[in-house]
Amino acid sequence: MKNVDKSETTTLSQMADELIIAHKQIAFLNEEKEKLAADLTLVNKELTIKTTEHKQYEKALLDSEERYRLLFNQAPLGYQSLDINGNFIDVNQHWLDTLGYYREEVIGKWFGDFLSPVYQVGFRKRFPIFKAQGFIHSEFEMLHKKGNILFIAFEGKIGYDSNGEFKQTHCILQDITEVKNAQEEINRQKGLFQSVIDNLPIMITYFDKNGKILLTNNELVKVLGWTHIEWETENIFAKCYPDPTYMKEVLDFMNSGERGWKDSRANTKYGTVIETSWTNIKLSDGVSMGIGQDITERKMTDRKLRESELKYRSLVESSSDAIFCVDEKGQYQFTNHLFASTFGKTPDYFVGKTFWDVYDKEHADMRFEASKRLFQNGKSESLEVEVPLPDKTLYFWATTNPIKDETGKVVLNLTHAVDISERKHSELALRESEERYRSLHENAGLGIAYYRQDGTVISYNRLAASNMNGVPEDFNGKSIYDLFPKKDAELYLARIKKSAISDKPIVYEDMVSLPIGNFHFMSTFSKICNLDNNIIGIQIISQNITKLKEAEESLKLSQSKYQVIFESTGTATLIVEADHTILLANHECFSLTGYSQEELIGQKWTQYVEAGSLQEMVKNHDLRRKQPSLAPKKYEVKLVNKKGETRFVILDIGMVPGTVQSIVSIIDITERLMAERAIKSKVEELERFNKLMLNREMKMIELKKEVNDLLIKAGEGEKYRILE
Questions:
Q1: Using CA atoms, how far apart are residues 377 and 373, in angstroms rounded to an integer?
Q2: What secondary structure letter does DSSP report for 354?
Q3: How far apart are CA 356 and CA 720, in angstroms?
Q4: What pLDDT, in 10s, does the model give residues 246-282?
Q5: What residues form DSSP beta bridges with 687?
């Protein structure tokens, strides 16, 4: 055997040790490799789950975006979003429809390019403020694509990114052009009416809680005779009311502070006894104001009228509603003047004619079927009907009512129709305002003339022109010297100039020589001012008081017939006295209020009125008797029924000719107002929903960020590009 060198043996031993160590290392690495493979398998499963979840999130996000986009474009309010420079980022379809543009004509453009020139400057100033404070409410004039100007209201908020920096604006807008125009017209009409009302002649006195007179006006002095000094220094009450018991009753009413009107008889300094009506208003400083009027002549007329059968005839002919009677064959037996005048005819024209003589077959058949139902079942029915005329279509709310003979058989159909055309065309407020003004000037039943301060005629209404034996156009621009003898013209011109410097209307009574004869007139001279308080003319309202004493025309229908018509109108109807006493009420009125005949007749109507409506109704009630052309014919108030419930109603009021009584038709609109309020609530709910959608958009951005982060972790690229 060959001998082995010692150094060689050592080297082999070292190599063996190294091989053993290397083997152990390889075994350890194999174990680590197996662990790593297991870990990689687990990670792969987790990535598979995450990928599935990402896809689900992505689909939910796309669905949510689509729902938001549909809501965004179908919203009933306009929406716009601007960048930091005021350029358009987005608008919805309602915005485009409102202003008439296509989307590509808007996006990227400066917002000021769509404003009228005047409002561009305002936008430059307001936009930095908007961005600074984070919200804004504003109104702008915007240009429609066709060139017309729209008035737009904006509600806006600023959207911020995750760092709190400006991102974009979010603005809701609404076209308020029609509302703005209507409000301006209403304000103009109110200003004109207020100027006239401020000059009404009434008695006014101020007194303290002890009944001491502090102030009186000229009308009080003129009516009762005692001077201002005498009222303030002497016990004039003892002279007006010499009966101590009666005087105490008057003073108790003054000190009670009760609202409403109270009639009283008063002695005057002239030695006469007159009838007056007073109401009191307590002021915040403890002083009370008494408002009164001389109703002597009215009382005399009332007594005469109550003794006459004209009461029932006037009721129908003075009604503001169309009334007619037909028999079972649909043949007209009676119509009032209002119904006949709708067709440009007289009542006699319709007597004997049928529905088919007046209307086309479709409308006539509809009316006959409604009438036939009444004759079959004897039950009233209300329905909306059209009245087609050559130049327009009117709409009425008609109520059929049975008139029965002694056996209970229906012999006539009495139909009462309320004109609802204005409501149908959504122009009620503006048309009523125009009608009141037109009625004031043309149909007041009084002669009304307007003069400049130099005596030049501005306008005459029809009655004033008729008194001068002409038509209104004959007098426009003429001098007062062209119309009256020199002596009379100088007198009237002096009165005009005196009225121009007077703060109160001036009343004159004298005999006037006119082309049509000599008549006794009571004329009220008042200056009329515009909203800037500049005089625009002198108004002269003249009443021919000679005709007040003429006899009323004879009755054509018996009292019993008109009583039946009154009770069968189908609408709650009252006749009230000047002193607020209810003279007559029909069964519909009892049904509406819940009160019986004994509880209404002879009572003051003021006790059935909701407190918030009482002052307006009392003012209109008195105004209708002093200058009826200035009192609104229709207006809304609140009544209180027997159960204590508040009912919203429309009053339609006319005067009984030749009297100071008024006829009142009452239509309950409570349910309609409740519906309008429900609609308003829905609109507010939609606005809240729109704000919720804005928050939803921010949530979507956060979801997109989360999806991008998960994709990066999975080794993939970002799917969404998010603008900060």
A1: 6
A2: B
A3: 73
A4: 988 888 888 877 778 889 899 999 999 999 998 888 8
A5: none
